[in-house]
Design a protein that fits this description.
Layout lengths: L8 H17 L5 H8 L3 H13 L3 E5 L9 E5 L1 H30 L29 H11 L3 E4 L2 H11 L8 E2 L2 H10 L14 E3 L1 H5 L6 E5 L5 E6 L2 E3 L3 H9 L7 H8 L4 E9 L15 H11 L4 E4 L7 H14 L2 E4 L13 H11 L8 E3 L11 H13 L4 E4 L20 H13 L2 E4 L3 E4 L4 E4 L11 E2 L3 H10 L10 H10 L8 E6 L6 H15 L4 E5 H7 L8 H20 L3 E5 L5 H12 L3 E7 L3 H7 L4 H6 L21 E3 L6 H14 L7
Parallel strand pairs: 3-6, 10-11, 10-13, 11-12, 13-14, 18-20, 18-21, 19-20, 21-22
Antiparallel strand pairs: 1-2, 4-9, 5-9, 6-7, 7-9, 8-9, 15-16, 15-17
Length: 692
């Protein structure tokens, strides 16, 4: 007499996994159809449904109909969608273990497949579909309604980039924003808590006030800046990170000269939230839509074309002839097809905007053979983390189906630190990538430094020119290219394509025709407003461009009348001035700003806003606090000394003296006209105005 094998917890979880999967793919199916799909009785199904409802995994919706078994519809909640993702991983892990056991029984040897949790890419085939975090279309429509009642977080531009790549599988194996345990592992040793390689903290930073309003286990809605719900997240972790440690470990130094460290300390929220994400819809992009592909869309494209080996080229700069030669050689060396995969999310402050760059890419794409090359845009928010960033970029490209990745000299380096030295060694990124490439499942191709050999009229790798003493080697650095563009000088055809130069000149006309911002900073009473007014008159006398004065007092009256004088409000006031100045600069005008602007971090943020469109000229009006107090035309210093004005700059609140302003002017012993003329001379020397 035989006895049935008792049900185990894993059997129950497998059945729950199959139920959630069935309800997600066929939410309108009757109970009879659902039971048949699961191969269980209707009674067993009802018991399973009750359990899932009590756990909060599914919701019940009434519907009309003659069949009593069709009176209700069961659909996944956001919590249920999260549980489905967890159970999917658990199911795959268990099935892999079963396969390994069967393989050993039949062959007497191990299968050679590593456990899923120790492999970044369980799919051996680089073109097979990878997991996404989106629910089905039908479930997404219902989740939108449900999520409308949840507490919402409005995502920053960087968080939107991160969320998009989380949801579409670009950040596989991540299932959401990192929890504290995973975060600590990534910061310390580039590994998630389960041992998988992942070098970059992907965190949801929020304000202390917002974090304090949440409970662990609570679901929140993640919205874009227009208020559209993109996803929900179950908050599993809520903690205050050690940002100095994160800066040291991830970026190599706690130095605000690094743009990501500056962002970490001065822009990001103080609290991190972690938890799994359920994707409802992708962020909407209205630009270059035909060039934007998810990892699975690119993998399907490669399958359709029969591509098996694909080398990816990462770039945040326009393509010039040296890049073309480099990519040709890389594809030939790897015997692979070429994916040009430029970043169009957030790059280094001051980079050419992505609209101009994509136009440049499209202008030269026909220089590549269409049968072997394609281009797709990557909505990544770069961190400029050098070696760690190179590994991160490699993992992302592996998710997009690539087998090879070009890693350059000082890959994703941010430039110089506070001591004027490079943050990373020139080959640190290549070394770290090479160390992990087997585990990553993607192979590195060295970025060769290509130079023009005039006598042979061709580009060659600089370190392979054996007769370098007998030939003329030419190269134009990025700094030199920017200078030539700014001054309207010739850019030789051997260096770049005429089509690229044409696009760059549209966006970057000669400096004398660009908009710019002059930003005065100094103590109250230092003479900022007086010099700014004199400068405005002189520039208006010259003509050619509209001039706008954004004086501190006038802005306070007309743009920031509701703000007080706390640090937070003063920062907000300066950021508003910076925003208006950047818009004036973008549209070819001259903005003259004259606030106190006491904080260096805020002035830096304004500089970054403006320099996206034109020059930023910081002028420190270096009048001493003693002289300002003597002048005290408004009687403010007297009130501050008496304690009647709190947080007054120079008395009860600090002033960060500019470390490297474009110009410093002394007003003691100098008349206003002379000070304004010093600014004019500086603008002439920078090429922003024509010499008079």
């Amino acid at each position: 007499m035989s006895s049935k094998t008792p049900k185990t917890n894993s059997d129950e979880e497998d059945l729950l996994f199959r139920l959630l999967r069935q309800l997600d793919t066929a939410p309108e199916a009757s109970q009879r159809v659902t039971a048949a799909a699961l191969e269980i009785s209707l009674g067993r199904l009802n018991t399973l449904l009750r359990t899932a409802v009590e756990a909060g995994f599914i919701s019940i919706n009434q519907r009309s109909g003659p069949d009593k078994r069709q009176r209700f519809a069961y659909t996944l909640t956001s919590r249920g969608a999260t549980e489905k993702v967890r159970l999917t991983d658990q199911f795959l892990t268990r099935k892999l273990a079963d396969y390994n056991a069967l393989h050993a029984e039949l062959t007497g040897t191990a299968s050679g497949l590593a456990p899923i949790k120790h492999r970044n890419h369980p799919m051996e085939n680089n073109l097979a579909p990878i997991p996404e975090l989106f629910v089905s279309y039908e479930s997404a429509q219902k989740l939108k309604v449900e999520a409308a009642d949840l507490v919402s977080h409005d995502l920053t531009p960087r968080q939107i980039c991160d969320l998009e790549l989380l949801m579409n599988g670009g950040f596989n194996p991540l299932k959401g924003f990192l929890g504290e345990e995973d975060y600590n592992g990534v910061v310390e040793n580039m590994r998630l808590a389960d041992g998988q390689l992942w070098p970059m903290p992907i965190t949801l930073d929020v304000s202390e006030e917002f974090a304090a309003s949440l409970e662990v286990g609570q679901d929140i809605a993640l919205r874009d800046q227009e208020g559209v719900i993109l996803a929900t997240m179950t908050v599993t972790d809520n903690w205050v990170p050690n940002k100095s440690k994160e800066a040291e470990k991830v970026f190599g130094a706690d130095d605000d000269a690094h743009p990501a460290v500056n962002y970490l300390h001065n822009t990001a929220g103080k609290v991190y939230l972690g938890g799994p994400v359920v994707g409802i819809q992708q962020p909407v992009h209205y630009d270059f839509r035909a060039r934007r592909d998810t990892p699975n869309e690119l993998r399907a494209y490669f399958r359709k074309l029969g591509w098996r080996r694909i080398v990816a080229f990462q770039t945040r700069n326009p393509l010039h002839r040296a890049h073309q030669e480099l990519t040709f050689r890389a594809a030939k060396e790897a015997q692979a097809n070429l994916l040009i995969h430029p970043v169009v999310g957030m790059t280094k402050p001051g980079d050419v905007d992505h609209f101009t760059r994509v136009r440049c890419y499209e202008a030269v794409l026909d220089k590549y053979p269409a049968s072997t090359t394609t281009m797709s845009l990557l909505p990544l928010a770069m961190r400029m983390a050098g070696p760690r960033e190179a590994v991160w970029h490699g993992l992302i490209r592996a998710n997009f189906g690539c087998t090879h990745f070009i890693v350059g000299r000082d890959h994703a380096g941010p430039g110089s630190n506070s001591q004027g030295e490079d943050f990373y060694g020139p080959y640190d990124a290549q070394d770290l990538f090479r160390e992990h490439q087997e585990e990553m499942g993607i192979e590195m191709v060295d970025f060769k430094h290509m130079v023009w050999v005039q006598e042979r009229a061709q580009y060659e790798p600089n370190d392979e020119i054996e007769d370098r003493d007998n030939v003329t080697i030419l190269n134009i650095s990025g700094t030199e290219l920017r200078r030539r563009l700014a001054e309207g000088l010739e850019i030789p055809e051997w260096f770049s394509f005429p089509e690229v130069v044409k696009e760059l000149r549209k966006t970057k006309p000669p400096r004398s025709k660009q908009g710019f911002t002059v930003f005065f900073t100094g103590f109250s009473g230092s003479g900022k407003s007086t010099i700014a007014n004199a400068l405005m008159v002189k520039l208006m006398e010259m003509g050619g461009r509209p001039v706008t004065l954004l004086d501190g007092d006038l802005v306070r009256k007309n743009l920031s009348s509701e703000l007080g004088f706390s640090k937070e409000h003063r920062d907000l006031n300066i950021r508003r001035i910076g925003y208006v100045a950047s818009e004036i600069t973008k549209n070819g005008g001259i903005a003259i700003c004259a606030p106190i602007a006491p904080y260096a971090t805020t002035r830096r943020a304004v500089r970054e806003d403006v320099e996206a469109f034109g020059a930023f000229v910081e002028v420190h009006v270096a009048t001493s606090i003693e002289e300002c107090e003597k002048r005290d035309r408004k009687g403010l210093y007297k009130l501050a000394r008496e304690g009647k004005i709190k947080e007054f700059t120079g008395i009860s609140d600090p002033y960060d003296v500019p470390a490297n302003p474009e110009l410093s002017v002394e007003t003691e012993g100098a008349d206003v006209d002379n000070c304004a003329h010093q600014v004019i001379l500086k603008l002439e020397s920078m090429g922003l105005i024509a010499a008079q």
